[in-house]
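Illustration 12: ATP-dependent rRNA helicase RRP3.
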Amino acid sequence: MSALKKRKVAHEAPENSSDADSSTPEASPGNADTANEQRQEEDSKPAPKTFKELGIIDPLCEACETMGYKAPTPIQAESIPLALQDRDLIGLAETGSGKTAAFALPILQALLDKPQAFFGLILAPTRELAYQISQSFENLGSTIAVRCAVIVGGMDMVPQSIALGKKPHIIVATPGRLLDHLENTKGFSLRSLKYLVMDEADRLLDLDFGPILDKILKVLPRERRTYLFSATMSSKVESLQRASLSNPLRVQVSSNKYQTVSTLLQSFLLIPQKHKDIYLVYLLNEYAGQSAIIFTRTVHETQRLAFLLRALGYGAIPLHGQLSQSARLGALGKFRSRSRDILVATDVAARGLDIPSVDVVLNFDLPTDSKTYVHRVGRTARAGKSGVAISFVTQYDAELWLRVEGALGKKLDTYDVDKEEVMVLAERVGEAQRYAITEMKKFDEKKGTRGVKKFGKGKRSRDEMDQDEG
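Figure caption equivalent — predicted structure in token form:
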């Protein structure tokens, strides 16, 4: 057993012994000092500086260099050697830690050794994340000509059936639409599947995909490797792990599930509710020329702020769950390419999306839970870069904010502003607010003429589940 494998099993093994390597003995009180000395000695060893040192072959190392991956992240350094040992794996790490490459590189290396169609299946909770994972596989596998198919809701099933008929190596899918194809697409089967990945597993289960995952797991071969990656290890994820993994090893690079990266500068603004729009415009002026994501709580507020900011001359674009799939991908594309430098979004953009150039995250509305806060601010300061996150705290948000600080385990600084400077913008912002109200009326009327989806008492359709909330 390698030193790395020993260290992770000894240091990170969960209390439930079924998660750990059964061949590794538990440390008893009598040999605790020896175990501690061994652990200190192993921990003092330098971390791998290259992907080649982790066991990745040259063609994939070249792809990593092309993508700008200079050195493995902690989750990659810990999980890749274990995955290359042909073991099931549970990977726990905060958002923005490089989890996609941690499972993509071992799968691509195994694919190169024994090429076959339908080699790997990656399940993701949202459509945007599925497209992003597919892009990562194609980029990392560019030197070995890997073929990927994205199977998500909100798109025509016929082109997807054609893509499956071309026998791709890797399928990236949302669970609802994948099950539709397994049940309805003639000739499509995953009986020869070698690798299954459940990415953002806690999110998959938060969105009630549990029963669908059970049906999918029943038609997959038992002889396969399974990787489960998640930001947190909830009781639901524990039960999914027991149902789908065989004697897995657990890799955990963060002991605090609400940890944020050290390069992120976080602060908050304590302001009256009625002046939020004015303070928002002031901050956008302060960070002019930098890319920003503004998070809101509702679709209505997302759309209203987009109208308001456009009236003031900002290149703002909305992203929320009521947009069509093509409009959502278009919004992300424009923001990534910097043809628009402000993205106003609901929590549909809070998790999993890798937009490398985000400089500032503004929490216009605080999220209702601390986990979502961590995922929101994780959109910036990614891959070792620095970033700024500023949260708006009104007289109605004090309890929510105290909860966030409690989860982070620290008090955050107040963002200093000159109130007189801010209020100079009041008149201009007032005009833009009136314009936004008019535009929202038109927007709501236009939406009404299309017919609103009626939700009965039955379960949501699989397509609606794939949308993600917001």
